[in-house]
Amino acid sequence: MIDDYDERRTYCRMLGHYLSFAYCRSLKQGLPCHKVLDCWFEHFPVEDFIREHYSDAQRELFLAPPKDKMTSLFELIERAKKHST
Ligand code: SF4
How far apart are CA 45 and CA 20, in angstroms? Predict the structure, then answer.
């Protein structure tokens, strides 16, 4: 079941405190954090878990590293330019 590991806890280096897998697997619009494989591989077979519960398209979406602020800003500017012409 998708909630089998929800009670497991680890230290999050991104947020600076302990949290549960329940949080990590529902971070981005109900999808896992992009660091989920790095943070949980020592705790349980997280790769199998991810393969079992998420489609290829979903995995591609949440495992992609987040865009840096400059890239996001550039994309926003480009989008605004397109809408204003
Ligand atoms: S998966 Fe993300 S939210 Fe969870 S511990 Fe790792 S960095 Fe923190």
Answer: 16
Three-state SS for 50-79 is HHHHCCHHHHHHHHCCCCCHHHHHHHHHHH
* Minimum CA distance residue for ligand 1 atom 3: 24
Pocket of ligand 1 (CB under 6 A): 10, 12, 14-15, 24, 27, 33, 35-36, 39
pLDDT for the residue 20: 97
pTM of this prediction?
0.78
Does residue 58 have a pLDDT over 90?
yes
For 37, the 3-state DSSP assignment is helix
Give the pLDDT confidence score for residue 31 in this predicted structure: 95
